[in-house]
Every structure is written in structure tokens, then in C-alpha cells.
Amino acid sequence: MTDLKHEHIFHAYPQSPVAEKVRVAFGIKGLAWRSVDIPRLPPKPMLTALTGGYRRTPVLQIGADIYCDSQCIIRELERRFPLPSFFPTKDEGLMWCLSRWTDGTLFDQVVRHVLGAAGDNLDKHFAADRGRLYLGEDWAAGLKKANADLPHLVSQLRAPLTWLNAQMADGRAFLLGNAPAAIDAQIYHVVWFLRGRWAGGPSFLSEFAELERWEANIQSIGHGTSSNMSAEDAITVAKKAEPLAIAGVAAHDPQGLEVGQEVTISPDVNGGEQPVAGKLRFADAQTVVIDRTAEDVGNVCVHFPRAGYRVDLS
């Protein structure tokens, strides 16, 4: 019988490009995982019960350990399943540096592109939610500007896609060679989003023949093996388990963090999102983990990346 405390429970929705990044990561590792569907728009009460308020997609749950942001998810999957590696070459550090661009500037640019191209056809509730996250408080004006700037936005995408196309021009199967890497998933999710959510995407991408060949290679990897799970069952798993995260703070912490401090954690952008509060359990240069206790989920540890997230003392 499967030990539910060690299953990979993936909270996401099918249309999420960041979820697609992690689904490809599952495929690279050949993993089995449980799929919990979450709403595309808030409120997401079953998800935020586990995370303490974090509403972004996706979230990975393993027992009572909750991993927020694909950075944390990819890092944890590599720790638990080192082979086949997400880092098949000696360029792991450079790949993580590049991922801050793919997950940040490049992804934000594509979001503006897709939202702007949709114009008045965009669902108003979706526009208000994602516009606030990616375009700031004056999101309505930002959407209008993105629509007017669409030719410019397209021009700004042609350069990086030209670079990627050139990277594949020697016939290699994946960006770093014959084996897929984390950076393949981290770039693929942006291309997947552009192709699937912009009406002009397929025509635009047809300019890049080597990149389309690479897309097909990524698609052939698959998503591992998934089976459905209800949100209620996922919460039951958390409540019956205890978190396994280690405790401690690495030397030279720039904020002087200490185990047991009351802290809040939030994305380091003005997206109007609720901070997550808890007691610090672990922190180093890459990760910060907090303890939370709530009647509906029991004791959980919520894991966040350090890069791109703000830690404040409560």
C-alpha cells in the first residue's frame, strides 16, 4: 500500500504555465504524483489552508511539508531523486541564475503580451486578478498599454527566441545536450504559454524551426504518471503527518534570522498578496521554512525560496 505521507501531491490547475513547468519536471524524473485541482482565481480556501495564505500556482505537498514556488519544488525533487539529474552538466549555478530571468523578466513579459493581446476578450475577473499581480495597482492602464504596445512586445520576444533557436541549431535534443535539464522545463513553460494562450503564437513560433523541434522533444518526455486526489484528502494527509524539514539557520544570514522567530513571508513584488505568517524553522541562501499550526491542517512546514521572496519579522 502506498504511504500517503510520502506521495507527491501537486496542487495546480491545467492551464497554469508554471504548473506545466513542474509537470515536465515530473516527466524528466519519471515520477508518479497525485493531482489536486485548484481554482484559477481566488478564493482558494483548501490551498490557502495548507499554505497559510499563499495563493500562487503551483504548490507541492509531501506529507505535512508544503513547497511553494517552482524553485522550491524543483530543488526538493532533485534532493529526493538525484537521478536522472535536473543538472546533467556542470552548469547548475548558471542554470539557476538563468532561471531567475526565465521565471522573472521573461515570464512577466509574456504575461503582459498574452494579456495585452486578449484586449477586451479577456475575462474581467481574470484580468483584474492577474493584472494586479503582474501590472501593479494601476493594472487597467497597464493592460491598455500592453495592448497598444503589442508590436513592440512581439519584437522583444523575437530576440530571446532567436537565441534559443541558435542554441538548438547543432541538432542537439535539448538545450544543454542529449539529456533534458531543469532549464529545459524552465524555458519550455514560457513557450508553452505563448503558443497556447496567444492566438498568434503558433504562427509566430513557426519562424523558429529548431525551437519547434525542441518543443516536440520536451513534449515526448511526458508528465510522469498522475492520478487524481481531492483537496479534502490532501488536507487529511497533512493533518495525519508531521513535517520533516530540518531546523537551523546558515551562517552569515544577512537578516540575522533565528529559529523560532515570528516572521512573515511574501513575494517581493507589489502584487497585493497576503503574507504568510509562522515561526522560522530553517533559512539559508536558497530557502526559508516556517512552522504553522492550524486546527484544520495540523502542524505543517511551508517552504519558500529566498530569491524573490521577502522575510519580515512579525
UniProtKB/TrEMBL annotation:
Organism phylogeny: Bacteria, Pseudomonadati, Pseudomonadota, Alphaproteobacteria, Rhodobacterales
One Pfam family of this chain: GST_C_2
Enzyme type, top EC level: transferase
Gene Ontology terms, MF aspect: glutathione transferase activity
SUPFAM superfamilies: GST C-terminal domain-like, Thioredoxin-like
Presence of keyword Transferase: yes
Keyword annotations of the record: Transferase
Taxonomy, superkingdom: Bacteria
InterPro entries for the chain: Glutathione-S-Trfase_C_sf, Glutathione_S-Trfase_N, Thioredoxin-like_sf
EC number, UniProt record: 2.5.1.18
Naturally occurring in which organism (per UniProt): Sulfitobacter noctilucicola
UniProt protein name: Glutathione S-transferase
Stretch forming the signal peptide: none
Domain GST N-terminal span(s) in chain numbering: 6-85
